[in-house]
Amino acid sequence: MQSTSLYTSMAGLQAINAQMQALSANLANQQTPGYAAVQAMTEAANYQGSNAPAGADAVALTPGPSLALGSLNHTGDPMNVALGGDSWLEVQTGSGPALTRNGSLSLSSAGILTDTAGNPVLGVGGQPISLPSLAKLEIGTDGTVSGVPASSPGGPAQVYGQINLVGTPAGPLTPLSGTLYSPPAGVTLTAATNGSLHQGYLNGSNVDSIQSMMQLIADGRSYQTQTDLMKSQGSSAADLNALVAQG
Hints:
Structural class: alpha+beta
Number of domains: 2
Radius of gyration: 25 Å
Strand order of the largest sheet: 12-5-6-14-13
Number of helices: 2
Order of helices and strands: HEEEEEEEEEEEEEEEEH
């Protein structure tokens, strides 16, 4: 009975620890543009083996991030775009396509439109968008990229491509690094039905910092309570063993 209760307490600590790690990561990224809050989740798994105790362990899972859009923050930078509706930017990484809501765009030395990590931002045809030196860059709400070439600053604007806005795919998104997420394997990405871009803005993090801090404090207290309970159980077991030895 004593052993079973200790195992149960350990499982409780693991669940609380997973929650605290997720909250800490969220608070550390509350100022990261396009950051999607991590969600902690655990599931019960029965102990295995001939001498396994009764009960179940707590196994940490990796569910998809929070899909809520962060607020629109004005930057005035034409290389910044915020997303509206249920939409994501699609970028090409070394391991395949990935999704992001961090609209801090850049131009590579070859004139390719990229995200902050240097991954090419894909157009509606699935290809990177190449830009010449521009006197003025314009990105429309539908993702159309146009601009006036620097070689003819008084000339008309030309269209160079259209940023692909994809809807949230079915199934969980897998965190890669920073604000990049891998879509579920085998799922075909489709165009967002209500997606839009807003040039000169960025999506903020969708972390609720006040709620996260309050939850972290509550979890810290729960962790301490659970630890104290385990110490008490251990002390009781030691006293019982001492009595048995004396008898």
